[in-house]
Amino acid sequence: MNIIPAIDLLDGQVVRLLKGDYNKKTVYNHNPIEEAAKFKTAGFDHIHVVDLNGAKNGSFKNLPIIKTIINQLELTVQTGGGVRSQEDIQKLLDAGLSGIICSSMAVKKTDEFLAAIRNNPDEIILGLDLKDGKMAYGGWLETSDKPIEDFLNPMIEAGLNKVLSTDIARDGMLTGPNFDMYSNLQNRFPEVKWIASGGVSNLQDLIQLNSIGVDGVVVGKAYYEGHIGLDDMGHLHSSNS
């Protein structure tokens, strides 16, 4: 299982939002490059960066920071937040991103998203955010009643092979991931590499996700709040890679 450390960027700072609320933020580091360097030193070569400015207003305000992380530290980066068109995807590919997470675009511009998958199957990651079992999008403000199968199957046929799935109710709450949800998704869609995100609270959570067999897990708040050490994350990551 790949452990993917997370950096959430807002106005150039490393932050976390509580349940996606921009009014409830904690600043962890004023220097994102320094934060990313810690992960590199600990043996990680791939990180998850969320551009919260992008998610809110569609502008890639933090892209220069992400490019610096890629070019200076030689880390590969997957990013999400504000990816709304094929042009956005191309802009991020040109900037050197190796994983581009799309969620709203997949719901609102499905044809364009399918074309993006066909063009770049290894770089496109679907961001599947779930709220009480329903898909949520648009900064988690809207939900869809469409069955997940109807949504996912055409994408898988187009070549989609990675899905990052977040249980919104648990994101940033340190209450443990929704293990049943990930197990269920993996059983229903075994051809997809599932990346778990949201709710990780301790090392035991990572061990349990590993036993379920998810491909990866994004770790954010649990690390920043001191519940999981970089050493523990690194050992589990390297023993599986």
Written account of the structure:
With 241 residues, the chain is of the alpha/beta class. 40% of the residues lie in helices and 29% in strands. It has eleven helices and twelve strands. The chain has an eight-stranded parallel β-barrel with strand order 1-4-5-6-7-10-11-12, surrounded by seven helices. The termini are close together.
The value of Rg in angstroms is: 16 Å
Give the overall form.
globular
Number of helical stretches of at least 4 residues: 11
Q: In percent, how helical is the residue content?
A: 40-55%
Question: What distance lies between the first and last C-alpha atoms, to the nearest angstrom?
Answer: 7 Å
DSSP strand tally: 12
Biggest sheet layout: 8 strands, parallel, barrel
| Topology order in helix (H) and strand (E) letters | EEEHEHHEHEHHEEEHEHEHEHH
Note the beta-strand portion: 25-35%
Mean pLDDT score: 92
Provide tags for this entry:
11 helices; 29% strand; globular
Short summary of the structure?
This protein has eleven helices and twelve strands.
Set down the secondary structure blueprint.
Layout: E1 2-10, E2 13-18, E3 21-29, H1 32-41, E4 46-51, H2 52-57, H3 63-73, E5 76-80, H4 86-94, E6 99-102, H5 104-108, H6 110-119, E7 124-131, E8 134-137, E9 142-144, H7 148-158, E10 162-167, H8 179-188, E11 193-197, H9 203-212, E12 216-219, H10 221-224, H11 230-240
Parallel strand pairs: 1-4, 1-12, 4-5, 5-6, 6-7, 7-10, 10-11, 11-12
Antiparallel strand pairs: 1-2, 2-3, 7-8, 8-9
Helix pairs in contact: 1-3
